[in-house]
């Protein structure tokens, strides 16, 4: 159930990271024990509360202007698809995921760019064929889209 509702929970990857780390490398029906620490109990309680208080999401409106708000941390990336309708910003879809060990070693610039790429890819059916705005808190990334191809990173 938690996996299904993760798309409606802001920062789900960060909240669930401890729980995922507990079962990483385990197989289904594995009889080995899990080290259920106090941090794991707290993460579990946070997950339960976040499902109970999931963000109220709006229904997509084809007339509204689309915004994609993205962010990256050292452990995960996230994006929220929002619409501006009647001068109000309304979220209607959320995305987050944990970074792989290799991705967590990316530079800040590359992690933020990965957040943009992954969010656009995840929400591709909403903005397809429409103009939309991408918001990021990483200023150098805004200049990347204004540069010519020979000055940018090969990634």
TrEMBL record:
One of its GO terms (molecular function) is endonuclease activity. InterPro entries: DNA/RNA_pol_sf, Rev_trsase/Diguanyl_cyclase, RT_RNaseH_2, Viral_Replic_Matur_Polypro. Residues 36-134 form the Reverse transcriptase/retrotransposon-derived protein RNase H-like domain. The keyword Transferase applies. The keyword Nucleotidyltransferase applies. SUPFAM superfamilies: DNA/RNA polymerases. Keywords: Endonuclease, Hydrolase, Nuclease, Nucleotidyltransferase, RNA-directed DNA polymerase, Transferase. It comes from the Eukaryota. This is Retrovirus-related Pol polyprotein from transposon 297. It comes from Araneus ventricosus (Orbweaver spider). The gene is pol_1181.
